Amino acid sequence: MTIPMVKYTGVTKTFGDREVLTGIDLDIAAGEKVAIIGPSGSGKTTMGRMLMTLEEPTSGTIEIDGVHLWHMSKKDRLVRANEKHLHEMRGNVGMVFQHFNLFPHRTVLQNVTEAPRRVLKLSKEEAEERAIEMLRKVGLYDKLADYPAQLSGGQKQRVAMARALVMRPKVMVFDEVTSALDPELVGEVLEVIREIADEGEMAMMLITHEMDFAKEIADRVLFCADGNIVEEGTPEAIFEYPQTDRLQSFLKRFRSAVYSMA
Fold this sequence. Notes:
Blueprint: E1 6-15, E2 18-28, E3 33-37, H1 44-51, E4 59-64, E5 67-68, E6 71-74, E7 77-80, H2 83-90, E8 93-96, H3 108-118, H4 124-137, H5 153-165, E9 171-175, H6 183-199, E10 203-207, H7 211-217, E11 220-225, E12 228-233, H8 235-240, H9 245-261
Parallel strand pairs: 3-10, 3-11, 8-9, 9-10
Antiparallel strand pairs: 1-2, 1-4, 4-5, 6-7, 11-12
Helix pairs in contact: 3-4, 3-5, 4-5, 5-6
């Protein structure tokens, strides 16, 4: 049996007395593109942050390529992972957030080479070669010496993508990467994600409110609400033939909002 690239088993998360995830079971295959949609507060972003070790599950397990993320084996039982294990596992996952989080006083090239030099211990020359290749891929080869303040929002987001991709992760998480952008800049960022997805090499988790984009790019769509995966299926099944009242209501509200903005 093929091992999933990402596997959530019985994952829960509580903040105080508020349960954000109520028992997530999810497999994502190598190369599979999974879009996650749902209302605010449904737990979508928490799922992504757990893969980046930014939020620890309250219970349950997460595996990446067959290796436990938040746990490790000790005397034939699972125990909480130590920092060394977490550090090693972080290199398997890249994440791009709503906000770019670039170093303002470093050039585009310096922003992208920072992690490969510090985490992967690449030489300056190796890191720059890899970074330039990735910046060329996202269409920013001519911005190597620019600083973040000189870039548009769309360009900053593409630098953030290059910074994540340069680590050559097994899994990429995109968390509402267009929500902080002006509408006219959204297209250029989505086009880069589309090109990355077309290469088919990495598993991708796309947390998004861009329904048309999810419909076009995803192999599978998950609809989350109230901390659960309420419904999942192909883009056609989810958007054209929703089965649950909860998803039907969500899509109706979304389409009404889009219509009112038109």
